[in-house]
């Protein structure tokens, strides 16, 4: 219900659409561009809140679908919301559950009223309307709530895309109307599939309703990098400059660089945490698959240019040993490193925008990569 | 080859055999009685060295058998031993591998020369003599090495027990002879099964050879608590008062209280770490099975009398949620708590011995238990 933007613009790049700003929430200020680690089930997998604070994560993401199913939003409400439940006192963004419900495929049915689906845990029948999605997120007490949206398969026809996008817009209005005056922010989600004109009309309709921020949904669903870039460029110019722009579920380090370049302020992705658990590590010179025999007696750190605890204290040989031995410490140390890499990349980009040298930074970023 | 004892006796209980002392190693001093967390594969499962330091663990245990097989002691030697490899600068005790090889059952053959066995990882044929066990532990660079011993099944005949115990003694002499002047301590292991006279003769033979400390092996193998206590009492009086006494692989919190009461200085056991991963938690009023539905919306800490990070920051309901969701953070937070419980129990007993009130402490310990 806020009419003022939670966003403050600090400066712009003279070279591209990138901008350096700040989003104010109930739990503090978030320096943007920002990457948000994903904490699906009220924990960012394999790390503690203290680890996240030490790596300067200012906001994390929770998944409404998962928390709705287990342990339930009413239980979490009794603990003072997600913040109290999981012992995290910085900002939290919750998604609406739309994407996860869509991922259930045959287990979900979308109607005008909302989404009927079956729990992936026990098959029980559940229903989530746009109003429910807001109510659940108010119970979770997140700082930034997302409107319930419908997701579009890729590829999709123009007809499918129009119908789905218009439903998302109608649901967005219902979400805005359902919202109580809790101080939580509510973001709308731009859909429109891979059609630039539909992206524009989706953005304009949402801006007409008026939200505290705008997300670009439906990307990183299997389309080419070129198409992802085109859709970003087809969306951002139609969003109001005074509000934060969030690209959902994206992406690789290069995707973040390209998103920032085009004016995106916020990102989230499971890639750093999930890849860490699979032994794939991001470094300044590219990705490392730690189980590779070449690291068996490698005494060096994962990344010589990294200052994270994993790189300061452990060798590639030790990290390989932990991974091969399926030790829990492997997941922990790898996750610390990958999240540090992502957060540090964003911090570097924030500095590059401040000093207006993002083009040089971007060239250097690609120049360092050896194997991607 | 030290002839002086690494042990300093600070004070004794006037009520029982308990004693308060200190063991000096290459990496510092260890206050006794002490509990040693088990770090089988060069990591104490689910926690970092920093976590262990924060909970004041002064010594941890590594398993020679596991490290010999993967990643290999020669690799670890190149990293400055286990300390450098795993980033731990306090003391480490390594077992000899005897117990693990014995646990392989049909995959192992014991001869006068040593133990022939097959790797549990790839079935490859391996051999470990007493001299090899010392050589491997010297490569690992542990502060306290253990002699290779043979383990006795339970139950066993007197004849079996005599033969096995005498072989352990001959191997102990070979270990002592094989040892180089590295400053590492070497402990002998008393066997003798469930026969008091054999316990005594085993102890006396080892004392004749002369070690830096003495371990009580072959307990917690299925025998009754009464028998375990009898064997402890049949062994400790025959060990020299000036040297540390270590009870291997024991045990429950009550086992630690009873061991300390009878003069044991050092303990190790996988129970706090393994049970943590299975959701079984030790508290001042007994054990908690965290998956139990009664904790679903329990806002209280695991243990109101505990000052560990898990109890300070998280509710039973949250810990139950993490366990039910199979989140890695569950293993981490549970392990932090259980190890803190064990280490704190030992710290409490050290204080009780210093103030000569161990009998009162022991009564209070049993009086608090609700469900064991």
Structural summary, described in words:
The structure is a homodimer of 372-residue chains. Chain A is α/β, with parallel strands linked by helices and 372 residues long. In chain A, the strands form four sheets. An eight-stranded parallel beta sheet of chain A has the order 4-14-13-12-11-10-6-5. The first copy, chain A, contains 15 helices and 16 strands. The longest helix of chain A is centred in the C-terminal third of the chain and has 27 residues, at 328-354. Chain A has two domains: 20-99 and 128-269, Queuine tRNA-ribosyltransferase-like (TIM Barrel); 276-364, no CATH class.
Provide keyphrases for this structure.
homodimer; 372 residues; alpha/beta; TIM Barrel; 2 domains; eight-stranded parallel sheet; three-stranded antiparallel sheet; 15 helices; 16 strands
